[in-house]
Amino acid sequence: MIESEVFKVLEEKILEIQNRKNKVVRVGINGIEGTGKTVFCNNLILFLRKNGLDAIHVSIEGYHNTKELRYKQGRNSAKGYYEDGYCEIEFIEKVLKSCQSENPKYVEAIHNLETDEILKLQPRNITNKSIIVTDGAYLFKDVYSDFWDLKIYLKTDFLTASIRRINRDLIQLGGLKSTKEKYDNRYHLASKMYNEENNPMEKADVIIDNTNLEDLVIVKE
Fold first, then answer.
1. How far is CA 77 from CA 15, 69, 85, 139, in A?
2. In the chain, helix, strand, coil percent, each to 5?
3. Contact 174, 66 (CB under 8 A)
4. Nearest 5 degrees, angle CA 60-CA 63-CA 65?
5. Regarding beta strands 206-209 and 217-220, do their DSSP bridges make them parallel or antiparallel, or are they unpaired?
6. How far apart are CA 66 and CA 60, in angstroms?
7. Based on C-alpha coordinates, what's the Rg of the chain?
8. What is the DSSP string of 26-89?
9. CB within 8 Å of 170: residues ≥ 6 apart
């Protein structure tokens, strides 16, 4: 299927949830590192906005822990990346729960990844017709399980994901060899830990095979 056809299916599901609950719809997009979550998320949001819906991207990247906490198990620890990368409770409280309140709102970010600065941003007010969309590698952990209204899993094999991510991060991570080592020994090892512990495909409401970006396949809906 072409991307727009897949997005139409997702839009129908989001509208059904919106009509049923009459509160902000919370959409989580999950998949292993390098599967294309952020691009998919941004394109879905653009599609929804073009159809007149108030879709908002709240990135989990704004909820990283500080370096002190992220690296406490070692700078290159896969276990540390999986367990300590994000401030999960604050994301739940300041985004997933606060957007369901009588006066819905959310805090865009609590941390600047580049500077390691703690942010003190004011909450943004939204309406019950808003749709919050978040992409991230570990969004279907048990700690989040009560808070997503629609869980979307992007399925891609590790080799394809590695090629995509290595090409993207080649310069930033210091060349082909160091980038490949980083993905094999940290990011993808962490994803394997996450998959074994949480079985995210079992938890997903929708599974989309996006191995071929030109021909997406809805595996489960």
1. 41, 12, 11, 20
2. 45, 20, 35
3. no
4. 130
5. antiparallel
6. 14
7. 17
8. EEEEE-STTS-HHHHHHHHHHHHHHTT-EEEE--GGGGBPPHHHHTTT-TT-HHHHHHHSB-HH
9. 176, 179
CATH number, domain 3-205, options 3.40.50.150, 1.10.3300.10, 3.40.50.2300, 3.40.50.300: 3.40.50.300
- Look up residue 143 and give its amino acid: V
Dig out the tokens for 42 from the structure: 């941004």
Q: Are 44 and 134 in contact (CB under 8 A)?
A: no
Q: How would you classify the pairing of strands 206-209 and 54-57?
A: unpaired
**Residues 137/33, Cβ–Cβ less than 8 Å:** yes
pLDDT in tens, 57-114: 999 999 999 999 999 999 889 999 999 999 999 999 999 999 999 999 999 999 999 9
Give the tokens for residue 20.
């049923």
Of residues 192, 180, 148, the one with CA closest to residue 26: 148
CA quadruple 156, 149, 83, 183: dihedral, nearest 10: 20
Closest CA to 64 of 139, 99, 107, 116: 116
pTM above 0.85? yes
